[in-house]
């Protein structure tokens, strides 16, 4: 797999298998597969460093809306060792309740840093 293809894969799978995953064991396996050990995740609510912190954050976030699904909008974009993906989250079959943009940096096929940008809440 090329580096570009791997970044495309990480962009889409991260949404579903880390942030959209309700099963803690599967979520942790995805984190270990996708992220370097000392990854950094930047969100409007804080900064999370390492697998344990990311796992706790993603699990806590998932628990607040376990029935929401993540769908990407538009096409993911990759440039060099970085990628972006726009997404929405809400109940399946409904308009998203919130939207955002993920930007990630990749080294050796794993996410080094993830930046999560949230758009204003939809009414």
UniProtKB/TrEMBL annotation:
InterPro entries given in the database record: NTF2-like_dom_sf, SnoaL-like
Residues annotated as domain SnoaL-like:
18-113
Q: Which Pfam families match?
A: SnoaL_2
Give the superkingdom in one word: Bacteria
Q: Where are the transmembrane segments?
A: none
State what protein this is by name.
SnoaL-like domain-containing protein
């Amino acid at each position: 797999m090329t580096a570009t293809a791997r970044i495309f894969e990480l962009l889409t799978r991260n949404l579903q298998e880390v942030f959209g995953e309700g099963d803690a064991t599967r979520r942790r396996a995805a984190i270990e597969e996708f992220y370097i050990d000392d990854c950094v995740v930047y969100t409007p609510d804080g900064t999370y460093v390492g697998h344990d912190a990311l796992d706790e954050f993603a699990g806590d976030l998932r628990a607040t809306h376990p029935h929401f699904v993540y769908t990407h909008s538009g096409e993911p974009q990759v440039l060099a060792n970085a990628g972006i993906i726009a997404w929405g989250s809400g109940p399946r079959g409904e308009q998203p309740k919130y939207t955002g943009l993920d930007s990630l940096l990749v080294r050796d096929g794993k996410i080094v840093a993830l930046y999560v940008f949230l758009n204003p809440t939809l009414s």
